[in-house]
Amino acid sequence: MDTAVVVAGAGPAGLMLAGELRLAGVDVIVTEKLARPSGESRGLGFTVRTMEVLDQRGLLPRFGELTTTAHHHFDGLPLNLGGLDGAHLANKSVLQSQTEEVLEKWAVEQGAEIRRGHELLSLTQNDDAVEIEVRGPAGGYRLRCAYLVGCDGGRSKVRKSAGFDFPGTPATMEIFLADVRGVRVQERKFGETVPGGLVMAGHLSDDLVRLIICEHGSAPRQRTGPAPFEEIAAAWMRLTGEDISTGTPVWTSAYGDAVRQVTNYRLGRVLLAGDSAHIHLPAGGQGMNVSIQDTITPRPRPTRS
Ligand SMILES: Cc1cc2nc3c(=O)[nH]c(=O)nc-3n(C[C@H](O)[C@H](O)[C@H](O)COP(=O)(O)OP(=O)(O)OC[C@H]3O[C@@H](n4cnc5c(N)ncnc54)[C@H](O)[C@@H]3O)c2cc1C
C-alpha cells in the first residue's frame, strides 16, 4: 500500500476529511487536479451545524471575528432562529475560498499530504485494495490504497468510474452568478421577484457585488467555459433595467437546478462525500455546509450559554 486512504479532490469536503482522518491517526494522500486553489467563492458562510462542527475541532478562531445572524428565510418567508437551542448562530460572510484555505492549512498541520496538480484518471478495486491512476506534473503514476474517497465534486470521476447510481431530476433552467467590480446596483435580497424572473444583488465588499439572475424560460445548457459577462449583463438589463456592462467581472458562473443523490455512499472500498454524492440548486446555500458535515463524526449539539 502507498497509503491507507486516498482522497480525490481538495475542496471543502476533501480537506475536512483529510484533517479528520489524520486526527484519527490514518495516513492520507489528497490528489487535487488544480495546481493552485481557484480563488473562486461559490459558497458564502456557515450554517449553524457547520459552526458547531468547526467549533468542535477548534477551528472557528481561525476565521477571525465571525459575525453571526439569527435571521434566515424558508422559501422567502422570514425566519428567526434565535430562539432555538444551540451554542451558535449562522454566519453569512466567510468566503468559500477562505474556508478552503483554513481547512487546507489545518489538514497539512495534522500531517495530510496534499498533492496539487495531480488528477485522478481512473480506478480499479478488488477485495484487498484500490488502485488509482494519477496524472501529475511529472507524468502519470499509480497509487495503491486501502480506501479511496471521491470528494471530486458534482462531476465526480470517482462516482462515474466506480459505478455509483446517481438518480434524480435533470436541470430545467439556467441561472447566472457574477461577482462584479465597479458597478452601482440596487441591493436586492435573494429571491426578489421582478417581471421576467428572480434577482439578487448583495455586496461582498464596498466595490464588489454578487449578482444572481434567474430568468423565466432560460433553458439549461452544457457550457464548456464560464458564462460570458455580456450575456449576464444583457439578462440583468432585461430584468432590472440597470446597466452593469461597464463593470469588471471577477468571476462568472452558470448553473442549473438538477437534483441528484447517490443511492449508496460506499461501493466496496470506494466512498463518496460532498458534491460527488449529491447535487442540488445552490439557492439555499447548503452544498458546502453539507459537504463538510458529510466528512465528520460530530459530537452531540452543544447548548447556548
Ligand atoms: C453559484 C454557487 C453558489 C453556491 N453558494 C453556496 C453557499 O452559499 N453555501 C453553501 O454551503 N454552498 C454553496 N454552493 C455549493 C458549494 O460550492 C459546493 O457544494 C461545495 O463546493 C462542494 O464541496 P466539495 O468539496 O464536495 O466539491 P468541490 O468544491 O467541487 O471540490 C471538488 C474538488 O475536486 C477537484 N477534482 C475534480 N475532479 C478531480 C479529479 N479527477 N482528480 C483530482 N481532483 C479533482 C476539483 O478541482 C475541486 O477542487 C454554491 C454553489 C454554486 C455553484
Structure, explained:
With 305 residues, the chain is of the alpha+beta class. It is built from six helices and 20 strands. The strands form five sheets. Strands 1, 2, 7, 8, 9, 10, 18 and 19 form an eight-stranded mixed β-sheet that branches. Strands 13-14-15-12-16 form a five-stranded antiparallel β-sheet, with helices on one face. Strands 11-17-20 form a three-stranded antiparallel β-sheet, with no helix packed on it. Helix 1 (12-23) runs parallel beside helix 3 and helix 1 (12-23) packs parallel to helix 6 (287-294). The longest helix has 14 residues, at 96-109. The relative contact order is 0.20. Bound molecules: flavin-adenine dinucleotide (FAD). Flavin-adenine dinucleotide is lined by residues 8-14, 31-34, 42-44, 96, 119-120, 151-153, 157, 177, 253, 255, 274-275, 282, 285-289, 291.
Question: What is the topology?
Answer:
Layout: E1 3-8, H1 12-23, E2 28-32, E3 44-46, H2 48-56, E4 71-74, E5 77-80, E6 91-95, H3 96-109, E7 113-116, E8 119-125, E9 130-136, E10 139-150, H4 157-162, E11 168-169, E12 174-181, E13 188-194, E14 197-205, E15 208-215, H5 229-240, E16 248-256, E17 259-261, E18 266-267, E19 270-272, E20 278-279, H6 287-294
Parallel strand pairs: 1-2, 1-10, 2-7, 10-19
Antiparallel strand pairs: 3-6, 4-5, 8-9, 9-10, 11-17, 12-15, 12-16, 13-14, 14-15, 17-20, 18-19
Helix pairs in contact: 1-3, 1-6
Bound molecules: flavin-adenine dinucleotide (FAD).
Residues 8-14, 31-34, 42-44, 96, 119-120, 151-153, 157, 177, 253, 255, 274-275, 282, 285-289, 291 line the site of flavin-adenine dinucleotide.
